[in-house]
Design a protein that fits this description.
Helix content: 10-25%
Structural class: alpha+beta
Distance between the termini: 47 Å
Number of helices: 8
Number of domains: 3
Number of strands: 27
Largest sheet: 11 strands, antiparallel
Radius of gyration: 28 Å
Length: 481
């Protein structure tokens, strides 16, 4: 009897937990401190659904004297700020198509030039690149324009789980030649062939296209007797985003064709690199699968292909074993991009900070080794700075790049700038640079500057900084393997 009453109590609490849809963000923020857990949780979800308009109320709520309100408001605020930031970063300029009786090859080249997307006709699957086509559209985001073009031109996109690796000459005996690195996702060609456009479910309205690949895609998997399948998304960024990696896919809603809910998610695999070539196969890879290299008695034998970096696996738990499609699939692709010219480390009042190291973003560290004021003869102050940064090998390994050990090139774009006490930029002319690595984890750079305007009050190291970006998607009628 007691258990039944408890169940009825919690059921009634849950039923009454959802706040009215007309409540303002200020009213929802007040509910974050409710004595009812269900009401607090419902208020958080309602604030997330409110979008950017709830940000001012949440910014005020993080200063609330209640720890519970502060904590929950901060969590929702971080989500909404990232959503707003992501939306801004993914904005694209729409284009209008107006092709009238021109060769399909000419139209593809023009579309490639206008969007920057690496479009290519598959020479083995296009019978006549000179056949005439026509396509008229309103202004559309680039990925939607490509979809409209394919429908009008009688073309379909060809998707591949593996990419051919460029052939290499066999190296001399005893010399190891590393495999060529794979192309960046935005450089993988979007191959077009003759055929009816499939119209895959996905998101095409931003700078990153997210598609659920067709049911016959070769990499899809069905795990018999478990109710689980592994489908794959094609996540294709436009060039110029400084794309780094897909960190994962967060599934928020799954409904199969029988109307029953399911679940799913993608968790980023940190990958590994096994360089013990004498003990058998070498597995290299991360989130998108592994590459196996065999040992031939002298050195590893490279594979002929590597995984397509645009293809991302998505495990799905299906409630109905006989389901052939997903009625609804919603979620967010979480990706990482590099934003240039971001502050990494700052040192204020450098005249009094000699010999003191200041750590900043990503384990980067600045140390003022020498700060000599202007002498009477030279008239130029001298500043000597040491920069300690993580090894590029470690940075690339974090991105699950299996070729990092062969390609330790540092990320370009870092620079040191000086400012006076009023925040005005001061001149700093580089006199000398000496680089050395004190171990395999850190690269140290010592730089000496002449400062004709006198010593700066503050120095700032800027460079590329990774940011997480959310790409929401809502797909209907997703075919299952």
């Amino acid at each position: 009897m007691t258990r039944m009453l408890a169940v009825l109590f919690f059921a009634s609490a849950a039923a009454g937990a959802a706040p009215p849809s007309n409540q303002t963000p200020e009213h929802l923020v007040d509910q974050l401190g409710s004595e009812s857990y269900a009401e607090r949780d419902a208020a958080m979800k309602a604030l997330e659904r409110s979008g950017p308009q709830a940000i001012p109320a949440l910014e005020a709520a993080v200063r609330n004297p209640s720890p519970e309100v502060c904590k929950r408001a901060a969590e929702v605020l971080a989500v909404l700020r990232r959503q707003a930031d992501s939306k801004e970063r993914l904005v694209v300029k729409p284009i209008r198509l107006s092709y009238k009786n021109i060769p399909v090859g000419t139209a593809v080249n023009d579309l490639k030039a206008r969007t920057g997307i690496n479009l290519a006709l598959d020479p083995n699957q296009v019978a006549d690149p000179l056949r005439l086509i026509s396509c008229e559209t309103a202004e559309l985001p680039p990925w939607e324009a490509i979809e409209a073009f394919c429908r009008a031109a009688g073309l379909k996109e060809v998707f591949a789980a593996e990419l051919e690796m460029p052939k290499q000459e066999r190296p001399k005996r005893g010399y190891y030649q590393p495999p060529p690195p794979p192309p960046a996702p935005d450089a993988v060609p979007v191959k077009l062939a003759d055929g009816k456009s499939i119209g895959l479910p996905g998101s095409r309205s931003t700078a990153v296209r997210v598609l659920a690949l067709p049911a016959n895609f070769s990499a899809h998997r069905v795990f018999l007797g478990t109710g689980s399948v592994q489908i794959h998304f094609d996540v294709a960024p436009m060039p110029g985003l400084n794309w780094r990696d897909v960190n994962g896919i967060r599934i928020t809603k799954v409904v199969d064709d029988a109307g029953r809910p399911g679940a799913g998610s993608t968790i980023k695999d940190p990958g590994h690199f096994n360089n013990d070539f004498l003990d058998g196969p070498v597995f290299v890879g991360g989130m998108r699968g592994a590459i196996a290299m065999r040992w031939d008695g002298e050195m590893p034998i490279h594979p002929n292909t590597y995984p397509n970096p645009r293809v991302v696996p998505v495990p799905i738990k299906i409630a109905t074993p006989s389901a052939r499609s997903l009625k609804l699939l919603e979620g967010v692709v979480v990706c990482e991009m590099a934003v240039a010219d971001q502050p990494l480390v700052t040192i204020d009042n450098i005249a009094q900070r000699a010999g003191v190291g200041v750590e900043g973003f990503g384990s980067t560290k600045l140390t003022v080794l020498e700060a000599t004021p202007a002498a009477a003869k030279s008239g130029k102050a001298v500043l000597k700075i040491q920069i300690d940064a993580p090894s590029p090998w470690l940075t690339n390994r974090r991105l699950a790049n299996p070729w990092a050990i062969m390609d330790p090139a540092p990320t370009p774009g870092s620079k040191l700038q000086g400012y006076d006490a009023a925040g005005k930029l001061v001149r700093m002319s580089s006199l000398s640079v000496s680089d050395f690595s004190n171990d395999e984890f850190t690269i140290t750079t010592v730089m000496q500057y002449a400062c004709p305007d006198g010593l700066p009050h503050k120095i700032v190291l800027t460079g590329p900084k990774p940011v997480l970006v959310d790409i929401p998607f809502k797909m209907e009628n997703v075919s299952l393997p």
